[in-house]
Amino acid sequence: MALKIADHWFERKTIDDAITLLWEPYVDPLIRCNIWHVRGRDFDLMIDTGLGIASLAEAAQDLLEKPVKAVATHTHYDHVGGHHEFQECIVHKLEEASLRNEDKSNFAGLTKDTIDPYVAEKIEASGYKLKDVLVTAIPKKGFNLADYELKGVQNKITTVEAGDVIDLGDRQFEILHLPGHSPGSIGLWEAKSGTLFSGDAIYDGPLIETLPGADLDQYIATLRTLMDIPATVVHAGHDPSFGRDTLQQIARKYLTMWA
What is the spatial distance between Cα 171 and Cα 185, in angstroms, rounded to a whole number? Predict the structure, then answer.
């Protein structure tokens, strides 16, 4: 199937003076992650970086006026494909090796036939239809979908765990360890504003608890933790942002199903 060449790979939306949402419009929603740029006084954050099909650093160049630290809410390939472009990355200590991807162990693929059949089966069992081709365009002439692979991070990696704080100078985000979807899934919680960046621990779509590294008991505990967080807004790893009522509705739904 011939795919068109995209005239741009990323789109963006300004959320407020400090937060910009970027995404890859030609990517299937299953692996189209939300990329969050958060402006700080001393440095900025890029929370998740998409697939790495095209350069995020180049596309967001006008936003990147200060040093940037790229945070991995977890290391599934749709969230860390662009991390190698940034000089400093932040990840939970349990997923540092995965972010480096030196053994090429992360599952990754832009077509169904390049994704491990076991993984594909688990994705579809969670309520998604895994399409044969997971993009509707390519970033440049000659781009071969079959050649896609995740690039491991070779630059500085700072590991975090629950209770650590990322201090941007004018705002502080507490690290929440939210395992279940993956061992080192994290959220970034700013109590002052009631803002939670939740990664794939919770979003307004079918949650996946069966991928390699997932743990149902941990996921149940994570959802119970999230139920108690007084979030005003949740900026998730996929799908639109939402408020506390929706957060609790989603968590309650899956607790009823899983617990």
Answer: 22
Q: So what's the architecture of 4-258 in CATH?
A: 4-Layer Sandwich (3.60)
Closest alpha carbon to 168 in 64, 68, 76, 94: 68
Q: Which long-range contacts (CB under 8 A, 24 or more apart) does 169-178 make?
A: 169/40, 169/41, 169/42, 169/43, 170/40, 170/41, 170/42, 171/18, 171/38, 171/40, 171/41, 173/45, 173/197, 175/92, 176/225, 176/229, 177/92, 178/202, 178/222, 178/225, 178/226
Estimate the crossing angle of helix 216-227 against helix 244-258, to 10 degrees: 150
Stated length of the chain: 259
Predicted local confidence at residue 82, as pLDDT? 97
Query: What pLDDT is attached to residue 11?
Result: 98
Helix (H) or strand (E) holding 255: helix 244-258
28: which 2 tokens? 């299937």
For the chain, the structural domain boundaries read: 4-258
Query: Residue 103 is encoded by which pair of tokens?
Result: 């053994």
| Other CB atoms within 10 A of residue 203 CB | 22
CA distance 160 to 166: 9
With a cut of 50, list the residues of the chain below it in pLDDT.
Answer: none
What pLDDT score was predicted for residue 45?
A: 98
> What local confidence, expressed as pLDDT, does residue 105 receive?
66
What is the model's pTM?
Answer: 0.96
